[in-house]
Amino acid sequence: MLEGELSVEYKEKTAVKEKRKKTCNKKPPKPPRAPSLDVANQKLIREISELAMLKRARIERMKAIKKMKAGKTSSSCSNIFPMVFTILFCLVITFQLPRRQMLV
Fold first, then answer.
1. CA-CA distance, 34 to 37, in Å (whole number)?
2. Distance between CA atoms of 12 and 6, rounded to whole angstroms?
3. Are 37 and 45 in contact (CB under 8 A)?
4. Is the four-CA dihedral 22, 25, 26, 31 of positive or negative sign?
5. Rounded to two decimals, what is the model's pTM?
6. What pLDDT was estimated at residue 10?
């Protein structure tokens, strides 16, 4: 009989614990707020954030310039002139070789 009473009491305790668990489904408490900063620290934080914004803007400008340079195709005239000059130089050298051999 003693065992029966223990099992009944155990069942009642577990039922009470289960009820408590079900009622505790509330939101967790908010974390405590950080202490407010004094004027000097606020000014320092403001300056740091301004520097970060300027740096970000500078990086964005640099990226835009790189994209413009990459997208910019060089004109064909600027490529043709050095090529013509090189061909003429090679032709002059080629025609000079047989004359030198005749002179020797």
1. 9
2. 10
3. yes
4. positive
5. 0.39
6. 63
